[in-house]
């Protein structure tokens, strides 16, 4: 039973990730024509490199994320309150449920943001700037 629950959860996660990829590809296709020819080539190259991910790269990413997740979990455990009996009628404080999947997704999102901000700093030449609301200013 536990195997089927995990299998179902992974299947759902894979469909969710596939939908995210589909939407991000759509966003890229919509934005690409507004970029200069040079930036279009840079983006297309980055997209092609992203598609060429190898099994060893994936294993490395997974190991890094697992290590980060283990580190975060150990920090949470260190913050845990000592087990002392509570007076009758008081409930212990509860934390939101965090599963390994949501933890990895959160770390994945953080890693993606860090990677994008690093590329953002290196990839702009200063002649066009895009505001947070998506409008281009010169």
Termini distance?
A: 59 Å
Q: Total number of β-strand segments?
A: 2
- What's the SSE pattern? HHHHEE
Largest sheet: 2 strands, antiparallel
**Rg over alpha carbons:** 21 Å
Strand content: under 5%
What structural class do you assign from the helix and strand content? mainly alpha
Principal-axis shape equals elongated
Q: Mean of residue pLDDT?
A: 74
**Which regions are unreliable across 5 or more consecutive residues at pLDDT < 50?**
95-133
Helix/strand layout:
Blueprint: H1 2-31, H2 37-51, H3 55-79, H4 100-123, E1 129-130, E2 136-137
Antiparallel strand pairs: 1-2
Helix pairs in contact: 3-4
How would you explain this protein's 3D organization?
The chain is mainly alpha-helical. It has a domain at 1-79. 68% of the residues lie in helices and 3% in strands. It is built from four helices and two strands. It has a two-stranded antiparallel sheet with strand order 1-2. A hairpin with a 5-residue loop joins strand 1 (129-130) and strand 2 (136-137). Helix 3 crosses helix 4 (100-123). The radius of gyration is 21 Å and the shape is elongated. The N and C termini lie far apart (59 Å).
